[in-house]
């Protein structure tokens, strides 16, 4: 069995910590067994590893998430990279063609699709493993995992069985219901309905044949070139709801979708992360602060306060699901986690004479480096404020440390490697109407040293 984890998302439901560059699955707010803060994707990947499934797993993600994914789960985890975000059907189609034409996976192989951010116990992955047997036993087009409901939720979709159950407990699926009212949910539960947790399996040949029927490429490189032409539609609407033979494997155990602040805070071990104070008279109140600015919360009940460089949220927990529809600020991410470190935008201004000035604080991990790069329309001034390293400018290398100020002219090739953990302030200036492009020649320090440095 091959396992594909889907990692996407627009980054709005857990704003201001999440953004277009850092979706909810990358937020380090959960505790592992060692008491360390980890993200949802780190937690799930560790569970896959403990279950013996990681070696046959891939992560499908967008190109904007590649660096943060590498930073959190490691450089060796295999990624299938979407050139742009086009919903789950195109993402799964691309992953299927990658397995078929690049990895040479048999058309009879069972492929399981799993969201990258479920909050589950480890034994959930034994149910994931059982989907392969479910496909073999039932010869169904699709096999899904359905969670045994613990209450009539209006937040989840439901899988309604037909009443037919095999000896091993596999249920034939009759239909689906999206987010019913609580009253209707009670009725569905009486019909033995299951929560739809978005996990399903199929033989690889099922999707490859489907792509051929739709006149879509079945080879990865061809589909990649035509990716922007694929419809933006979910796999549920395009495939699942049209499949003729679907079965569901029940799962009885803990499962939760941590998609909003109210559900996420229920699983946080600490009521406070970051600098601030929550007064003793607060009830069921959480503070998550990623900035150095202290935040004080007094006398609040059932409230979440979240603070990041992107903004500030103060919300009643029950109202937090409305956030996705309300947040639409016209600004790029103010904080980004990269494979080599992080970037924090401090200020971004455009002046009357057309000049634009962007100020950033950048962190570079020890023994990591920036690519060998140049800016086509911007000059930069760097002030090293922490650590020491090696700086290259147009092939000339010099040792730099805290206190050094470096000037990088427009189009000058440059890079930096940290010998110890480094931080530096970047002031980038240019004319707003001239579109700036980042040109990168080499990424590894070995390639930079071999090809770019003057002897």
From TrEMBL:
The keyword Transferase applies. GO terms for molecular function: mannose-1-phosphate guanylyltransferase (GTP) activity. Its EC number is 2.7.7.13. Residues 4-270 form the Nucleotidyl transferase domain. Gene3D superfamilies: Jelly Rolls, Spore Coat Polysaccharide Biosynthesis Protein SpsA, Chain A. SUPFAM superfamilies: Nucleotide-diphospho-sugar transferases, RmlC-like cupins. Residues 338-439 form the Mannose-6-phosphate isomerase type II C-terminal domain. It holds the Pfam family NTP_transferase. It comes from the Bacteria. Keywords: Nucleotidyltransferase, Transferase. The keyword 4Fe-4S does not apply. This is Mannose-1-phosphate guanylyltransferase. It comes from Paenibacillus hunanensis.
């Amino acid at each position: 069995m091959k396992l594909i984890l889907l990692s996407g998302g627009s980054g709005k439901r857990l704003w201001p910590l999440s953004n277009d560059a850092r979706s909810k699955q990358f937020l380090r707010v959960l505790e592992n067994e060692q008491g360390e803060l980890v993200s949802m994707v780190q937690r799930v990947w560790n569970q896959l590893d403990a279950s013996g499934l990681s070696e046959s797993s891939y992560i499908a993600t967008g190109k904007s998430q590649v660096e943060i994914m590498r930073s959190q789960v490691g450089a060796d985890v295999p990624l299938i990279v979407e050139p742009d975000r086009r919903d789950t059907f195109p993402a799964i189609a691309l992953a299927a063609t990658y397995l078929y034409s690049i990895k040479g996976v048999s058309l009879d192989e069972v492929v399981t699709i799993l969201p990258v951010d479920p909050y589950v116990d480890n034994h959930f992955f034994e149910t994931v493993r059982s989907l392969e047997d479910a496909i073999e036993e039932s010869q169904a087009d699709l096999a899904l995992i359905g969670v045994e409901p613990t209450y009539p939720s209006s937040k989840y979709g439901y899988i309604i069985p037909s009443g037919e159950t095999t000896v091993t407990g596999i249920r034939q699926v009759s239909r689906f219901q999206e987010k019913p009212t609580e009253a209707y949910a009670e009725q569905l539960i009486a019909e033995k309905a299951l929560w739809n947790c978005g996990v399903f399996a199929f033989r690889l040949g099922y999707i490859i044949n489907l792509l051929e029927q739709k006149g879509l490429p079945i080879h990865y490189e061809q589909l990649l070139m035509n990716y922007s032409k694929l419809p933006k539609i979910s796999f549920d609407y395009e495939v699942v709801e049209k499949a003729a033979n679907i079965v569901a494997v029940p799962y009885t155990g803990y499962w939760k979708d941590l998609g909003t602040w109210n559900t996420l805070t229920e699983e946080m071990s600490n009521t406070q992360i970051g600098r601030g104070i929550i007064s003793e008279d607060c009830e069921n109140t959480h503070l998550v602060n990623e900035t150095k600015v202290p935040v004080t919360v007094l006398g609040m009940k059932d409230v979440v306060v979240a603070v990041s460089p992107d903004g500030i949220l103060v919300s009643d927990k029950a109202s937090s699901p409305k956030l996705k529809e309300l947040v639409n600020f016209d600004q790029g991410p103010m904080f980004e986690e990269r494979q080599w470190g992080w970037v924090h935008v401090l200020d971004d201004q455009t002046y009357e004479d057309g000049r634009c000035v962007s100020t950033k604080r950048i962190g570079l991990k020890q023994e990591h480096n920036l690519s060998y790069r140049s800016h086509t329309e911007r000059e930069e001034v760097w002030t090293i404020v922490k650590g020491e390293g090696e700086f290259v400018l147009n092939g000339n290398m010099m040792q730099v440390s805290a206190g050094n100020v470096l000037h990088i002219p427009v189009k000058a090739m440059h890079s930096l490697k940290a010998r110890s953990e480094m931080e530096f302030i970047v002031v980038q200036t240019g004319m707003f109407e001239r579109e700036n492009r980042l040109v990168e020649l080499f990424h590894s320090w070995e390639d930079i040293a071999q090809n770019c440095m003057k002897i």
